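*** Residues and shapes ***
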Amino acid sequence: MIRFEAVEKPVDFAEKVEEPGAIWLADHASGRPRDLWSPFKPQLADAFRNLCAYSAMFEPVGTVDHFVSCDEDRTKAYAWSNYRYAAGWINSSKNSLLSSEIFDPFEVGDGWFEILLPSLQLVATDRVPEGLRERAKFVLKRLHLRDDERVLRQRREWYRMYQDGELTLDGLRKKTPLIAAAVAKQQGNAA
């Protein structure tokens, strides 16, 4: 995970999502809120630089993740500030988690997580505040971010492309900033 900065909601978001969403919620005391947010997925992807908010890797077909799930708080179902861009399978991994059990990509500290080379495993660093380290371990395991084969396959391919000269370090930084940071760290240690 890396820190992302929140961006302003799109200009027509209130008209097309917030206002009809508030009406829908008032008319439906239960049930899954009607999906009004998906048409704004491209803007959300842009806000996250097309990176999954949790794996911090390029995600071409991500989903709109409700950071606070609709089960936890329905009133946030149509709030732009509650949306994160995420790979579908990672979004599904959150399932019934409460928002307090994981880290908000808007609140993760710089350097809290790093990729180890050559294993490409994601680990929490000692920059995670001590009181949050158990949660960091939980997040890595529950969201399958540490060493799940699905994320390792992606990391291997980005790293291979860099090693084979198909991608510059700047290009790698755009597609998977944590691997780029690991490469830069390795190069710094070798110098």
